[in-house]
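wait is this the right file?? whatever heres the structure
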């Protein structure tokens, strides 16, 4: 089983036919979202045995989020519930399809996540990232979960997916990121994240991860290990937007890895895995909102 741990929220995305019209007053369409949530849905659609670990509101948006998980065959037994509202993220989409967000997260359900007593023994990998590593008190609970699961040998993936507008203290967040690396098996981040965080793949590898995957937008993906570096090109596609593309990469890497150890992968195996992730992300980019592909589409 693969677990995605972190926030779920509602993305308010400009309607495709209104993006060039009213600017900030463009009509908005609600879509299920949140980096870890998207990763869980992508895992389920790819055919992985997947579970979501979070706290979800009992409001109408929360019910819609749970419906999305069930539709993707994602297990929800690790989901905590609460009466607090669902987090909202208002997206603005640039001409290149990239998205910027404003968040409405004060007092919302997902940031009140509490450390679960234990995860099922069948869990072989767990992914973390995005807002859930920033918003307290949930951020400390997710950090404790990451450290605990790494300690019992579970493969851990960290996707920082930095949202600067949510981070009150940039230096403290960068220090927290570095403090997590000894507990991370696979670090995946975008070039934009890398610039904001500072450092290099080589420096991050020295702190603990077995591999660092860097997504480079239209330039493709690169993995850095202690033995080699492998790059693959992106798959050309007409981009609707890039929402959920990085989350799809997370899911594709974990699903494609299967039961193999990261250290057992040679350069050709990494090239195949990255190419699979690039194909999956391209499909997500081809349609509005976070709509990762199904296995049959790949």
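ok assuming it is, sequence goes like this
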């Amino acid at each position: 089983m693969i677990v995605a741990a972190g926030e779920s929220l509602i993305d308010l995305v400009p309607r495709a036919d209104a993006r060039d019209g009213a600017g900030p007053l463009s009509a908005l369409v609600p879509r299920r979202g949140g980096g870890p949530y998207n990763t869980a849905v992508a895992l389920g659609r790819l055919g992985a045995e997947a579970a979501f670990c979070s706290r979800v509101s009992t409001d109408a948006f929360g019910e819609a989020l749970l419906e999305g998980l069930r539709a993707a065959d994602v297990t929800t037994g690790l989901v905590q519930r609460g009466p607090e509202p669902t987090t909202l993220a208002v997206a603005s989409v640039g001409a290149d399809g990239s998205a910027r967000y404003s968040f409405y997260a004060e007092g919302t359900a997902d940031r009140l996540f509490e450390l679960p007593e234990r995860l099922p023994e069948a869990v072989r990998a767990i992914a973390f990232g995005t807002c859930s590593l920033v918003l307290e008190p949930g951020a400390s609970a997710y950090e404790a979960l990451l450290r605990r699961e790494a300690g019992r040998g579970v493969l851990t993936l960290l996707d920082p997916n930095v949202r600067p507008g949510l981070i009150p203290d940039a230096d403290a967040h960068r220090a927290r990121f570095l403090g997590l690396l000894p507990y991370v098996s696979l670090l995946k981040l975008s070039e934009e994240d890398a610039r904001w965080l500072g450092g290099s793949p080589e420096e991050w590898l020295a702190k603990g991860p077995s591999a660092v995957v860097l997504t480079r937008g239209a330039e493709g993906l690169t993995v850095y290990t202690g033995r080699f570096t492998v790059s693959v090109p992106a798959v050309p596609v007409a981009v609707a937007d890039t929402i959920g593309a990085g989350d799809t990469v997370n899911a594709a890497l974990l699903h494609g890895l299967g039961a193999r150890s990261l250290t057992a992968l040679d350069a050709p195996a990494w090239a195949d895995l990255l190419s699979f992730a690039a194909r999956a992300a391209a499909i997500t980019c081809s349609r509005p909102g976070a709509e990762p592909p199904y296995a049959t589409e790949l």
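The first helix runs from residue 35 to 46. so i think its the right one actually
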